[in-house]
Protein 1
Amino acid sequence: MHLHRYEKWWLTFGIGSLVLFLVIVGISAFHQGHQPPSSVKTINYEQIDKVAPFNEPGLRKVEGKDWDYELVVVASAFMYMPTEVEIPVGSTVKIIATTKDVVHGYGVAGTNINMMLEPGYVNEYVTTMDKTGEYLVVCNEYCGTGHHTMKMMYKVVDINE
Ligand SMILES: [Cu+2]
């Protein structure tokens, strides 16, 4: 079979870029641990108010874990519970979030925290808040007429001051 020279270049380029992309995705997924939000933890979204830990949304200190605090968040149209938290600077926080009704977003401005909260699933993310300041949390998945009013505030404070 005769292949034109340009055809060979194109094939090499095409197969080469495919291999390159697979390598990038592979490194990102297996080495750096980038994965789609896990759907490992499921929950009956109609029972959220009765199921721990979502029956008590808020920030609490934990002992003996890789993180210092657990922040339990329940999103619903059109608010987050809790509406404001005070986090000591430098602490590691595990965010545990879900939604009561429709899909909501959970984006923390000025950080790389950005989650999609889906009914029936629990979303978790561990992060360290190492800069003091106020961080606005907004919903970035359109959820209805009050979408633009959905917000929460992180106040990262130096407790020694
Ligand atoms: Cu929204």
Note: The helical segments are 5-31.
Protein 2
Amino acid sequence: MSENKLKIEKIRKGTVIDHIEAGYALIILNLTGLAESTNLMTIGVNVSSRKIPKKDIIKIENVFLNEVQMQQISILSPDATISLIEDYQVIEKKKVTIPKTITKLIICQNITCITNSHKEPIDTEFLVLEEKPLKIQCVYCDRIYKLEEIIFTSQEKIEKKIKQRIQL
Ligand SMILES: [Zn+2]
């Protein structure tokens, strides 16, 4: 048994997010809201693996991911795998998949886009043009975004929260 496998199976119950793009673990934790969890978490950053040069890994006790969180992870790390653990055993292992269209999760930064209209705001919707490297297009204004240009809806919420705290 390889050392990596041993590390993964150590968790009693919960979720292991493996094969995360190196350097993305903390970004994923913040975006998915998992960073605010009070459950035990183990985070490995720049872990060496035989398959890929370096990767990140997140293990969280007693937490199972929802559909939105899985989509957020797929956008940031299309090669990530999610393992569900019960009694130290992997009961389900799945690869994340990027949806063909991404709704609500990402903000369109074009101020003239209808999704930013104050009168009749509508949910954002992006077409996935390419998965890796990621390229998405707003269905309303046609603006194209690369991964590093994307702003997530949850990111904006976190920033608002921080601002509120500072003001207090
Ligand atoms: Zn737009």
Note: Residues 126 and 139 are 6 Å apart (CA to CA).
